[in-house]
Amino acid sequence: MDQILGQVLRNAVWERLDMLADLATRADAQSLVSVARSELPRLTEGWRAMLTAHEPDERGDCPTCSTRWHRCKAPCSVWQVAHEHLVAGGLAPQQDLRRPSRRKPKVPAQTRGTTPGEATGRHALIPQVAHH
Ligand SMILES: [Zn+2]
After folding, report:
1. Span 111-132, average pLDDT
2. Which stretches does the entry tag as region Disordered (predicted)?
3. Which pLDDT score, from 0 to 100, does residue 20 have?
4. What is the rounded distance in angstroms from the CA atom of residue 63 to the CA atom of residue 76?
């Protein structure tokens, strides 16, 4: 029973995400504005709630991902995904980590294969969409 309810719950969330992604590509400008006004705050609230549960504890571990026997160092996978999609993905181009900044990379050859022009081009603003 719990397993079925879990499946129903997960399907409802996946379908909601599919619907929102679909709206972003199909809806006309006017509907898109009203959807953005109602849905963006819900999405940011969702991210906040999820990230709050994954804030590092005083030992620098994620309390949600850690078990009694295995400590999970922060930032855990939830924070890594959040950074990848919300910051590195292009919502905040001025904070693009691919640009040289105060942090000096130890190994310059491993800069994820980006060309110099790529970080400033318009296509750098398009978030990476994972298809599943
Ligand atoms: Zn975590």
Report:
1. 46
2. 90-132
3. 93
4. 10
The whole-angstrom separation of Cα 75 and Cα 84 is 12
Cα of 118 from ligand 1 centre, angstroms: 31
Q: How far is the CA of 47 from the centre of ligand 1 (A)?
A: 13
**In which band, very low, low, confident or very high, does the pLDDT at 89 lie, cut at 50, 70 and 90?**
confident
CA distance from start to end of the chain: 27
> Ligand 1 centre and the CA of 13: distance in Å?
20
Going from the Cα of 102 to the center of ligand 1, the distance in angstroms, rounded, reads 27
Measured in Å, residue 34 CA sits from the centre of ligand 1 at 33
Share of the chain above pLDDT 90, in %: 61
